Amino acid sequence: MKRHLFLTERPQPIPRWVEAFPDALLMCGQGMDATDPSILAESSIIWLHASGDDQAVASWVGAVKAVSQNAPIVVLSNVPEDGQGLAALAAGASGYCSALTLPAVLHQVASVVTHGGIWVGPKLMRRLMQSLATRGNEATEPSLDKLSLRERQVAKAVARGSTNKEIARVMGITERTVKAHLSAAFEKLGVRDRMQLALLVNRVEDSTQASRKISA
What residue ranges define each of the domains in the chain, with the CATH number in brackets? Predict the structure, then answer.
């Protein structure tokens, strides 16, 4: 059975993490191998305790994502900052929140990212959505013509921040079908995750794509 995995350079995990997920696998200390495929492959969600500047956090997310077999990644920060959060999301993280988030909220985060959603704090979400709204418009991005009608509907719903579960309910299809349409959209549009898809649909240039892409 897959478990939550917490990666941190702290010698000990923060107690709230253990309280939220008593059976989680904890890798602590600076000597840990954070990209061991055999460990990452057994993870349901990977929680990265962020340290360092924006680029360092983004690089860590990218390195872990390259070998994580699609497990959602959530970045935990001691002092959450919008810039760091945006860098983490652009690198492929599915969530960004405080390292001191309460156990009950950690369970909410886990539920959202497990169902294909993105979790960020209200302030960062407003900043992200405002940026997309001011740069995007109702015109269809030309590359979206590559998608089928259903794939386009799913892509636009994802760009609005909907989870797979919400999309399935609104469209009257299963979550499995949503995932299939989403995977097809990723492949046809040449994007690697929901954040890049949202940026593309909203016609926002993802300037980090080339510099942060890491081969598996």
Answer: 3-127 (3.40.50.2300), 136-212 (1.10.10.10)
